[in-house]
Amino acid sequence: MGSECDLGGFEQVVLETLKRCQQQNESTLVWVMEVAKCIRSLGVGLPCLELGHVLVSQLCFDDNNSSLWKFVELALSSGLLYPLHVLSLLTSRVLPHRRSQPKAYRLYLELLSRYAFSFNPEKADACKEKMTKSIDVALQLSQLYGLRVLELGQAFVLFFFSMIIGLIDSTLDDWGLRMTPTDGPSLALGSTDHHDMDIDFKGSRNFKGNEHHEKMRTANSFMAIEVLGKLTESRKAIVILRLVHLNMPVNFNGLLQRLQFLEASELVSPHLNSANQLLAKLSANIQRAMGFQYQLNRSQLIGLLLDIASCKPVSCFHSQFGQSACWAPFDIYMENAMDGKQLPIKSAVDVLTETIKTLQAFNQASWQETFLALWLSALRLVQREHDPLEGPIPRLEARLCVLLSIVPLAIANVLEDEAKLCHSSTAGATFTGSVESGYGHKMNGKGCASRKDGLISSLQILGHFSGLLCPPVSVTDAANTAARKAASFITNAKNQRDIIRGGSLVDASVKAGGDMRHLIVEACIARNLIDTSAYIWPGYVSASIISLSDSLSLDKSPWLMFMEGAPLNGSLIDYLIMNPASSLAEIEKLFSIALNGSEEEKSAAAKILCGASLSRGWNIQVPEVAASLMPLCEVFGSLKPASSNKSSKDDEPSIYMVFSFAFLYLLRLWKFYRPPLEQCISERGAAVRGELTLEYLLLLRNRSIASCQVETYSNPNQSEPASGKPIYIDSYPKLRAWYCQNKSCIASTLAGLSSGNPVHQVANKILSMIYWKMTKSAASSSNSSTPTSNSACGSPGSTGEDAYQRPVLPAWEVLEAIPFVLEAILTACAHGRLSPRDLTTGLRDLVDFLPASLAAIVSYFSAEVTRGIWKPVAMNGKDWPSPAAILPSMESEIKAILAAVGVDAPSCYTGNSPIMLPLPMAALVSLTITFKLDKSLEYVHSVAGLALEHCASGCPWPSMHIIGSLWAQKIRRWHNFIVVSSSRSIFRQNKEAVAQLLRSCFTSFLGSLNISTSSLSNQSSVNGLLGSTISVGGGGPSVAPGFLFLRSCRTIHNVHYVSDVIVGLIAEYARNLASRWASSDSPRLKSSQTSLSIASVRAREVATLGASLLCVTGGVQLVQELFRNTIPTWLISSRKQELHVSAVPRIVEGYAMAYLLILSGAIIWGVEAKLTTCAFSRRARAVGVHMDFLAGVLEGNISLGCDPATWKAYLSCLVGLMVRFAPAWIQEVKLETLRKLACGLRGWHECELAVSLLERGGTAAVGSVAELLNVIS
Questions:
Q1: What pLDDT, on a 0 to 100 scale, did the predictor assign at position 497?
Q2: How many CA atoms, within 13 angstroms, populate the side-chain half-sphere of residue 1192?
Q3: CA-based nearest residue to 586, from 615, 600, 566
Q4: What is the Cα–Cα distance from 674 to 1206, expressed in whole angstroms?
Q5: I need a labelling partner for 1242 at 20 to 30 A (CA). Which of 126, 438, 892, 1215 fits?
Q6: In the 8-state DSSP scheme, what is residue 300?
Q7: List of residues 6+ apart from 624 with CB closer than 8 A
Q8: Could you give the 3-state DSSP secondary structure of residue 911?
Q9: Which residues pair with 178 in a beta bridge?
Q10: Mean pLDDT value of segment 671-679
Q11: Which pLDDT does position 626 carry in this prediction?
């Protein structure tokens, strides 16, 4: 802009010039030349904003001189005026007075039709800021849209949208139709300081009688719709409308409401019938903008890769459906959750909910296909241990828990999300008529039922997969009961109406008996996901079951009897201990009795709680279970036993026993689980895994309760959790005191105690008890390995003499003293004052006295093993038990398992080398092999097994083989289970073994790579990766490589190495896949687009497998590292370039790596904008850092070592995938970074990809898109 001039003086000069030209009857061209000369003489630059203000102030007055309008048009075309500025001023002036000035309105519409898209930001460089402010003030954009208008492009987009809204509102009003928009006032009415639009600004209403004006007004309303139809069909309009639709949905919904109102008012207004075609065209244009997708440059290979839709190789009715790699994350996550070594921040239900939505989007699948794949993955999970290897910890119940509880709960969340979406989409409608969730999608109930319909059809199709539906033996009766229940329903219905006669409900060919589908359907009915109409699905119930249903009655469950008020007597207690509860209500009732019942009821309820309901549960409920166990421990641990001479043979559980049940389970939850990797310390690329803390467990529990309360407040129909108050460890002083002491013992060696200290006195009493038993007769000592069945851990029953020696103390006082007892007897053994056999006997007697002592023993020995201050002892069969008898054969079996999955394991022992273990480790394993095997002692065995594995992690590598051999000698039927478990230990620190196992995972899933043909030998298979079952052949157990990796990945020390290996394997497989169909001397395709489609699908399979394995190994930390360092390092690092290799394999490599990054982030963080504050900030930082890196490369600030084709493919595909699958991420990137990326893409002739990136950048990026309108059009 030139020098500033006084507006009043400028206006006077311009008007005088125009008047003179008019008096001299000059042509409008001369007008333009004279005014331009006048402007130059005043030192004002072009385009001239002041001229626009002067002219617009004159156009809407008096006679609306046609010559003045012609002059304006010529001034616009010659650059004297800026079209956007003038049209904005005219819009604010003409629309409110269109009825009093119909001629001005007509001319305004003509100008709008011609110049609405005449937007060239470069021509306004001299006065951009001033022009933007002028447009904002004229149209009141900041007030209308609630944002600061700082860019000219932003003002242009808002002007165009405001103009559409204004013209529609004007037409509605002209036709006598009234509606109340939800998006604020309209330009058609002007601001509050304007007069009513029906009144001439001179106060005259005489225009109403002017017949010519009435006809013009009528014609104008039709012309307005016609102009809108013309403008909105252009490519530029589509871009603008799509911008508003994506970034300002509330305002765009206001536009949709107006169109809906017009559609609903067709029968009311005669004008609408006449304008029907015009309105239909306008509506079609708006719809086209909503569904518009940018067409990438299909002349380039990258454009083809991004344009190819997700391939669905088989029909959902095919037996191989669900084994496709695109659904593998379901299987991998579920199988990984069975390990239970790590406690995630998010519950399994929430994780699975996000995974369902993510995979449905990435695979572009229907909800029927998505839910079917989910059910098949869960069924494979159960069938994988249909006949499990016998071991100390039952796992089948946990697998059934996933199938029948976790999956239905996750599906319930998905259905609830859709219901909320449907509800929110109808909340803003304020007019009468049809209510729609979006234009063209009427809400007659079918829209919200789409996901539910997909669920129902998936359950119906599930019957075709009979190979997965055979129930395990433990639930066969339950499956049969479910089938009989459906048969009874049909039989009862038969008595009311003739539903059997047609034969549509009963399939006589179906084999009698229930299967897993019957259990799944019952689980869904119980969760209100479906109703009992499922019972009459064709083929759901066989005719033979229906014929038996009249004579069979369903027995009442003992749990139901308990809920109905049956007293806790002997037989009922035994059943409830051995069979897990079926609902949360049953657990809550038991918990209430355990805290508030009579003394007899408290003991019985506590023992039931710690029975099968807990041992066969799953770690998904860990924080809540831990919080429930704490008050039980606090109360029972503070009670003193009534008498020291009460026999353990009594049927009533002792106070020590009840406390031990609860306390050992509490220990199991926090001692052997691991916090998420992001909670650990990272040192030099390796994660230092910290132990889980009770505080962390309670934090998770309280966070979950707070989240439930927030949802309850927002949804009044949702019930509040029974225990809604936060819980802190300070609420339990006894537990807290022991917990602090335990942490102190782990952190450092024990400090000495004075003889008068109460803890010292208790320790002396315990030592006296132990040494008294050591001095008993040789007969008693020799029989110590064959204890009676009534002891907690298999020791002899208490006699009166034994009881006399036992201290009568609360359990907390005993636990506090045990570390000092252990230090004393371990030191005595190390110095030869106590024999290993007596040490083992003393430890076992301590556990017999108080089973909860095992917790202190495990903590103390684990810490001592880690400190490494105890000399190793020889496991020679004299002082300590010897594994020599079976160690060689066991090592051979372990090597065979590893060899089968491609891992070359070194030999552990030779015939001459001694078999050694650290003293604390030897003492612990010697203690555990004395435990009697009994179903009622599962709570002890589960702790002992985890403790051995935990302690062995601090010993040299082969220690687990020794421990496993000792246990395999004791319990031969556990042999195969122990061999498989011991085979995992090599991966803890052996990086080469980890790399070999990962390669086998890719090979087993994708097929072996044939070097001569560069092709994969067979189809990808989930069963190849994880195995269909854990088989035991003639040579021993055999496990799939993926199964072994998932059982080992939690213990791998350097998880960053895993990430590097996975990235390398993906790059290698992607290149080799592409080499099959690309010629060696040209980037053109060797065959048809079908071949490219197959190659791209296989590249996605590679990336999908890699993303799934990476996420289960390192979680958030590894994914953050992938964004920040791993992928940037892969791009920067130079590598050997093969000669005579086309660009195609390198392009596919870049595509696969981009898919890996996007899918990994989506699995961990999801693709939606709704996140917790912590997760949102982590995702925003990770994505922002990576995009900044890419922008830095484009600017030339960072040099790359990869092939240029790989780099270009990676960036283009990453942007394309992010736009398609994770658009919410883009708004978390800095606007300046988005502009740099878009600029780079434009330089690669990917203009539409650049626009699609910017349009997702939020309202701040709107202006940047507008500036590209001329390029993409």
A1: 56
A2: 13
A3: 566
A4: 38
A5: 126
A6: S
A7: 701, 704
A8: coil
A9: none
A10: 55
A11: 79
Q: Give every CB contact of residue 1167 below 8 A, 6+ residues apart in sequence.
A: 357, 358, 361, 1221, 1222, 1223, 1224, 1225
The model's pLDDT over 105-159, given as tens digits with 9 standing for 90+, comes to: 999 999 999 999 998 888 888 888 999 999 999 999 999 998 899 899 999 999 9
Alpha helix positions (H), 776-835: 778-782, 800-805, 811-830
Whole-number Å distance between alpha carbons of 293 and 239: 10
The per-residue pLDDT for 7 is: 63
For residue 727, give Cα distances in angstroms to 622, 695, 697, 759, 1240: 14, 10, 10, 29, 54
**681 phi/psi in degrees, rounded to 5:** -90, 140
Higher pLDDT, 877 or 265: 877
189: number of CA atoms within 13 Å, CB side? 13
What's the farthest any 2 CA atoms get from each other in the chain? 137
Joined together, the tokens standing for residue 224 give 């307005």
What is the reported pTM?
Answer: 0.84
Q: Encode 444-497 in three state secondary structure.
A: CCCCCCHHHHHHHHHHHHHHHCHHHCCCCHHHHHHHHHHHHHHHHHHHHHHCCC
pLDDT of residue 310: 45
Q: What phi and psi, each to the nearest 5 degrees, are found at residue 317?
A: -90, -10
b (16+ CB within 10 A) / e for 923-958? bbbbbbbbbbeeeebbbbbbbbbbbbbbbbbbbeeb
Q: What's residue 321's pLDDT? A: 58
| Sequence-ordered list of residues with C-beta below 8 angstroms from that of 1095, at least 6 positions apart, any chain | 1073, 1074, 1076, 1077, 1148
Q: Is there a cis peptide before residue 47, judged by omega within 30 degrees of 0? A: yes
pLDDT at residue 1044 in the model: 94
* pLDDT of 1190: 96
**Is 1072:1145 a contact under the CB 8 Å cutoff?**
yes
Exposed, middle or buried, 778 (CB in 10 Å: 0-12/13-18/19+)?
exposed
Q: Contact at 8 Å (CB) between 598 and 634?
A: no
Query: Looking at 601-605, 1066-1070, 1119-1123, which range is the least confident one?
Result: 601-605
pLDDT band at 1137 (very low <50, low <70, confident <90, very high): low
Please tell me whether residue 1005 adopts helix, strand or coil conformation.
helix
Task: Supply angle C-alpha 547, 552, 553, rounded to 5.
Answer: 140
Three-state SS string across 631-689, please?
HHHHHHHHCCCCCCCCCCCCCCCCHHHHHHHHHHHHHHHHHCCECCHHHCEEECCEEEC
Among 272-281, 609-618, 938-947, 1258-1267, the minimum mean pLDDT is found in 609-618
